[in-house]
Amino acid sequence: MKVHNRFLALTMAAMMLISTMGFVFVTSASAAGNTTAAVISASPSKISKGDDVKLKIQVTDEDINPGQKDDKAEAIKKATFEFKESGSGFEPSNKGTVKFSSPQVTVDPVKTLITYSFEVENLNYNGSNKLFKCTVKIPGYPSYNLEADISDFVSSGSSGSSGSSSSSDGDPVAPSDSTQSYVVTKVYRYSNIDNTTRPGTVIFDMNDQSMIGRGDSTIRQGYYADILITVKDNSAPGGDYEIPLGSSSVLGSFTYQQGVSSIQNLTDKDAGSFTFLLEKVRYTGSRKQLAFFITGDGYKTTVDLEISECKTRSEAEAEKEENDDTPDYSKLERATPYVIISNYGYGGGQVTAGDTFPLSLTFYNTSSVLSVNNMMITVTMPDDLMLTSSSNTFYVENLGRQETITKSMMVTAKPAAAAQSHNITVSMRYQYVDDKVEARKSAETSETIAIPVVQVDRFQATGVELDPEIYIGEESNLTVNFVNKGRSEVYNLSAEISGNINNPGQQQNLGNLASGATGTADFYITPSGEGEVTGEVTITYEDTNMVEKTITVPYNTTAIDPMAGMEPTYPGMGGDVQVPVEEPKSPMPIIIVVAVAVLIPTAVIIKKKIDKKRSEMEDADL
Fold it and tell me: Which value, to the nearest 10 degrees, does the dihedral of the CA atoms of residues 561, 564, 568, 574 take?
């Protein structure tokens, strides 16, 4: 069993190793598929066999994931190079080891394109061919081989075959007894920055009438072109002819890409001329040369043409320096990283005045390139909110690129807090290191969050005013009293009455009621019959959150007939006569009245007699 497990483990390890090696092999093989190199300067400017040489190489790297352009640029700055003597036209000079400088990197701000250059010293040109070869090792990326053609810098007297052809017959040179011409029929460029391996938008088409006068036939580095070639040679024997493609450099400064480019032979077998249409061949930007062989049965000739529509890499650079006001993005400072509040929570939909609630804040570093550090967070509360058992400042040592961090605190809404949204201000001050200018910089951001606070609803009905007895057929007043004991206003009050009365459904619109105010709802009711009268008054209003609420106030009273106790009606002239029934009266009031009526005159007479007799006695004394 142990042997079986060991064998299985070894088998799986071997499979993983083979898979990994296959991935590395495929990656390495394709790593340089969209990478081109060119010699942009040489010292001496014209190289002869045996010269000690210094070269400046420029590399255009299009093998980039759009989202990792800056990351790869940083990795290229740390790249190392290894000289490949095998197959190269150079060897180390007597000065010793071939020396490479650190690469200078430029990132294209629009396309997924990185250009970098480096210098090579201690080279000796041996004249075996016109190629410089080296291996590029970029940390975190597969190594790949670069080849740069030095034909533009080789003295005409130098020996060696061109690297632009796989033929052993040397550089393609047009025979003296033939004439050659070309026509650029189409020019393509990339349709967008992500399309780096296929032609996209047609920017020139000689057969499209709409492009006449506005189409641009300039062929720049990386562009594709359709070129019609005509060669007249009366010595041609006739028959089938072809352009053999021994390597990707067989077309001089153009390359043929399998699955993209194509060649059409338009030659008439019996004519003394050849016509070929080269479709979607890619321009490398090194020179303006289009060179290839034409072969047939016992026949071989060469085509070597200068394509004037081409703009070499060095010409494009010179044009850019002269006319382009675009800043050098490789020297620009990094974009400022911003820290924002990506999310916050306060424990529910609303906060009631007087309550304490948890407040959580999540901070997010929006930069995909730079980390921020030494960050100080300050939370500023409005008057109606206050922090509970917590400081209003927080410190964060480091927040990585596109990372988040959450801070929590307890907050209390004051009992008298207004029923509204209250704004909390959060300020972030931090630092970051800009590696492009090698400087530490400071930045700050500020955000506002809103916390909705509501007051407790304390609207109340305080009682009903209604007589304990009311009369049938008469209107009686009913009053409902209410008060707003809450700290916020209530809105759109209305009242409606119901019950066993003649006029239910009466409504009143009472408007708004301020905090601490009282009010009444008044109704006139008429009982529908004798006996107990019951019903209710429904009051409807809206609180500070515009939520409609209702309260009901019951009432009751007794309805009586005001004619109760009257005698029954009797027929009379012209109608019935109603005779009231009187109860027997006591005689005591009459006796008292009579007594008073008798005593008062008697007293008056007696008093007069006394006064007369007194007067007579006085006269007798005199």
Answer: -50
Q: pLDDT by residue (tens digit) across 307-325?
A: 999 999 888 888 777 765 6
Determine which of 42-51, 83-92, 106-115, 444-453 has the lowest per-residue pLDDT on average: 106-115
Closest among 350, 346, 344 to 453, alpha carbons compared: 350
Cβ pair 544, 488 in contact under 8 A: yes
- What is the rounded CA–CA span in Å between residue 409 and residue 347? 12
Name the 3-class secondary structure at 186.
strand
221, part of any domain: yes
555 CB-contact burial (10 Å; exposed 0-12 / middle 13-18 / buried 19+): buried
Sign of the torsion formed by the C-alpha atoms of 216, 220, 226 and 232: positive
Place of tokens 């409902």: 480
Q: How many CB atoms lie within 10 A of CB 114?
A: 22
To the question of pTM greater than 0.85 for the whole model, the response is: no
Residue 577 makes CB contacts below 8 A (sequence gap 6+) with 569, 570, 571
pLDDT band at 299 (very low <50, low <70, confident <90, very high): confident
Secondary structure E strands in 266-328: 273-283, 289-296, 299-306
248 occurs within a structural domain:
yes
Are both 303 and 372 inside the same structural domain? Answer: no
**Number of domains forming the structure of the chain:** 4
Q: Which domain holds residue 502?
A: 459-560
Tally of CB atoms within 10 A around 405: 17
Dihedral sign from CA coordinates of 72, 74, 78, 83 = positive
First to last CA, the chain: 176
Contact 20, 13 (CB under 8 A): no
Domain assignment present for residue 140? The answer is yes
What Cα–Cα distance (Å) separates residue 101 from each residue in 12, 98, 556? 43, 10, 105
Q: Are residues 552 and 465 in the same domain?
A: yes
* Token couple for 479: 């009053």
Query: 17 by DSSP, 3-state: which?
Result: helix
Taking Cα atoms as reference points, which of 227, 215, 218 lies closest to residue 319? 218
Q: Contact, 291 vs 251, CB < 8 A?
A: yes
Q: Is the pLDDT of residue 259 over 90?
A: no
- What lies within 8 Å, CB to CB, of 379 at 6+ separation is 361, 387, 392, 393, 394, 409, 424, 425, 426
The residues with which 571 forms a beta bridge, in sequence order, are 576
* pLDDT at residue 366, as a whole number: 93
Q: Are residues 303 and 275 in the same domain?
A: yes
Q: Residue 296 above 60 pLDDT?
A: yes
Please say which residue of 430, 454, 478 terminates a domain.
454
CA–CA distance, 38 with 150 (Å, rounded to integer): 8
Q: Are 164 and 290 in contact (CB under 8 A)?
A: no
Alpha carbon of residue 305 to chain centroid: 53
The last residue of one of the domains, among 537, 560, 583, is 560
Tell me phi and psi for residue 220, to 5 degrees: -105, 170
- Kindly tell me the sign of the dihedral angle through the C-alpha atoms of 568, 573, 575, 577: negative
The CA radius of gyration of the chain, in Å to the nearest whole number, is: 55
More confident residue, 201 or 81: 81
Q: Would you say residue 582 lies in a domain?
A: no
